[in-house]
Amino acid sequence: MGQLSCAVTPRGQGDCNDDIRLPNYIEHAPSHITKKDLDYLQSKGALGLPHYKVQMKQWKAYWKYAYPCNPILDPTEIMNIMQGHKSRTKISLFLFQCVLLVGRLFLDIHEGSCTNSVHLQAMFQKIRLLYNLGWETNPFVVLKSLLLMTWFPQSVDESKGQAYWITQAVSLAFRIGLHRDPSQLDIEQRLRSLRKRLWWCLYVRERTLNLDAGLPWIIDENDYDVPMITIHDFELVPPSCGFEDNIPFAELGAINRQRQIALMSVERAALMVLVGRLPSISIHIADRSKKRPGKPLLHTHGQRLNKLSIDEFDYSLDQWMNNLPPEVNYHGSNSLASWVGDGQLYMHCTMLRLSYSIVRLQSAALRYLQNKSIVDHRSRKMVSAACFLIIDLIEELNYHEYSAYVPLYGFSTLRPVLIWAIISQEQNIKRYQGFPQLLALQYKVGKADPYYLLFQSYLQHKNITMKEDTLYLSP
């Protein structure tokens, strides 16, 4: 893929050469970046951008697939910058590179490429160079960029994986006071809403990633007082106000569509507040380096819940589902026909339902674990039902060619199967009629999954060998 490079100079020390330059909406190098730093970054390709057409393709992919689930950018502000309208700021190169990375991830998956390709690894390393060198000094821009870096899929046990980057983001958010109620700040209402959106995007991403990784929650419910986000915190802009064909925000569409996207963000935040009431569950398969790994185990982190607490949680979860606005609950429609022509919106609504199903599995697994000293067939059935509801949704997404996106949104496609299999291990897993097909599906959509290596260890423990879409069970 061709690169557009530029001899980027510090602000106030000249411009790019006349032949090749960065887009005029990208900031010059910060004044604290030295010539030596620039030469080093240039030698590593960290200052290069794809050709304009490729940029726009990746940029549009971000707005189409990532923004609806994590609306951290301000479309109106970005639009004004890119169109040269009255804006005193430009887009940070660091942030721009992060957006392009996320867009590239979705494009590569859509085109059938593996998300751990050499090109994507190199792209991520260039972004890390900019971060480590302290390219960006605006803490809000750094925070947005860190959130985008968490989209890069890595193994669940990677030391500087997604959990590391979300921890850095949360730490920065508390340092800059983002966890405080913005209504007390002497700023215009639009900026208050932007702060609320950024906080709740951070909150949702932290809960989502740590739920999936089985890590303790970072954000304590007693440590912030930001009011719950509402539909009024989103600026809904009619396409006639500047969403031209050559500007990627056409991907957001008409007012009704923007409203649906905003409602999903509100409901996702409310769901993740519920999640914070549950302990997290981690998966351990000991001695993975040995030929015969140890027995797979589930561990909880946080205060253990009794049956009454889990019952109360399940009731709250049911209330959340029952009160979903009809605009974002496609199961409330007569059929999928209402979504024909807007596959992306259908996908985002399905992802919201998938989030609910994964939380339901978490609750069912905790119900089993708090009473695992006895054989609890009812709890096992609840785990199985929750797991296979997830599989049904993934199969549905797979039918529409969206299933491979699931890990990018923070949910492993393999983790639910592992939880179900570990809890059901006293039964003969290999005799389960649907197990081969289920594993084949997970293999197909899970190559970029954070639990892929752990899943292989589990298969080794069970003497199960899998090649492509075929499963071989050892006698």
TrEMBL record:
Domain Xylanolytic transcriptional activator regulatory: 162-234
GO molecular-function term, one example from the UniProt record: DNA binding
GO biological process: DNA-templated transcription
Top-level lineage group: Eukaryota
Cross-referenced InterPro entries: Fungal_Detox/Toxin_TFs, XnlR_reg_dom
A Pfam family matched in the record: Fungal_trans
The entry's keywords: Nucleus
The protein, known as: Fungal-specific transcription factor domain-containing protein
Organism: Talaromyces proteolyticus
